[in-house]
Amino acid sequence: MAAGAVVFIGQFAAWTYVTPFLTDYTYLSSGVITLLFVVYGCGGIVGSLVAGSLFKRGVIGSFVGSTTAVAAMLIGLASAGTLPWPAGLLLALWGLIWGIANPATLVWLLDAAPENQEAASAVNVTNLQVSLALGSALGAILVSTTTLQTVFFVAGFTVLGSGVLAAVAGRFVTLAGRD
């Protein structure tokens, strides 16, 4: 749950401010940003479809790999976000990889509590909602005190921290279904 909370905090710290970032730093029009959001969403669908086969190999490993990749996308956006093509590519890849990281949190919890699936699912939703609020608040604090680029750097390192936390937890956790 902690790794899931941390990844959602990082995700929503950045996602809340992606439109201002793309307009203020990348100078993209609202039409291009809308198109990129569609590509992001389609990438997320593809990522979710791929996730099932990855989870069969290992939920925790899939989570660690995907969070590391999302962190790279966020840090990459902070670094190269002024260039339209790299920013668009990074946003598309972010959607694709987030389509793996997001469901991994639920599958991990369900595998950890096979006898309490409804409760585990409810806990995951609550965890997500609280983390969404905390991530948005973190982004707001950073936007009001620093820059949009800093928001993406902090979000990236937060997501990376989630992957590290999951990797450490994976050494001590045995899941019922897959790992």
TrEMBL record:
Keyword Zinc: no
Signal peptide region: none
Keywords: Cell membrane, Membrane, Transmembrane, Transmembrane helix
One Gene Ontology term, aspect cellular component: plasma membrane
Domain of life where this protein originates: Bacteria
Main location: membrane
Subcellular location: Cell membrane
Bilayer topology term: Multi-pass membrane protein
Bilayer-crossing regions: 32-52, 59-81, 87-110, 122-144, 150-173
GO molecular function: transmembrane transporter activity
InterPro entries to which the protein is assigned, alphabetical: MFS_Efflux_Transporters, MFS_trans_sf
Protein name: Major facilitator superfamily (MFS) profile domain-containing protein
